Give the backbone structure.
Amino acid sequence: MFGKRTKHDKTDNNRDILIKISRQLEEVTRHLKLSQLSNGILTFPYSEDDIQIALPQAHHDYVQKRILILNTFYELGQLEAIKKAGIVSERSAVLDIGSNIGNHAIFFGRILGSGFITRT
């Protein structure tokens, strides 16, 4: 049965096409959003606050790309789990080791109200 395509082959091909289109749309979205940044600063809403974060390398840094595309904190699920568990409070001192652009430090300070934040 050489040359005859099966239903499975067509499904795989359609999935591959959709993945390719999705990646292209994400790239177009990223370029549009990059052009809208004000001095490399992204502002996005979160929990009734406007959060500002610098994305100076958003054109090639993975974490910054994700923040730009998703318009929210990187690793938001993990950060919200910390919030829900009550691990960080206003009395907490937070050490954000390997902070990159301070995504987690901003979350702990602005959203959880941590009083002392150190980025390294």
